[in-house]
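From the shared-data thread, chain only:
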Amino acid sequence: MKIPTIPFTICALAPLCPGEERKASAGPVMVDLYSLDEVITQLAPSLYIPVPREDCPAEGLTLRFSRMKDFTPEGIIGGNDYLKGIDNIGRFIAEAIARETSSADIARNITAEWPQAPLVIDMSDAGAATPKRREKNMIDDILSMVASTDSAPPSSPAGPRRWKARCDEIISSLLKIVYDD
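Structure, as tokens:
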């Protein structure tokens, strides 16, 4: 099958963000493959997307674009203060878990640093200290490889791991809404 190479034409005629009234361009803007980032910067497009309140208290995200990379998931997260905040909370939790910080300290830092975070910080989970890793020797490593247990791993992680998973769920859910349709 032969597919003809036809250049695409894009025409946007309406403001897409509530409350933002900008003057329309005086005329068409010519774009080619090499000037796309410059044109996006010049036009400064933005988009408002309503989202569920449980994932975003403002019930909407305003996305602003200044280059093609802003349309990627990383660009969308980095370009929106709310998404960037949730991502920062998740990174903070992951680093704190790696440093073996207690759950109570992690909870205190989250509530102090990000008071508007849409996370349910269960203080009963936060009261337990994060278990310290014990030093293993080579024999323990070998035995752990061959040991069998009949019990399944816990179905839901507690405390900081649950909070980190919730941050990931929020970002994933919001990005899904952004990219749907």
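Helices lie at 36-43, 73-79, 81-98, 103-113, 123-127, 138-146, 160-179.
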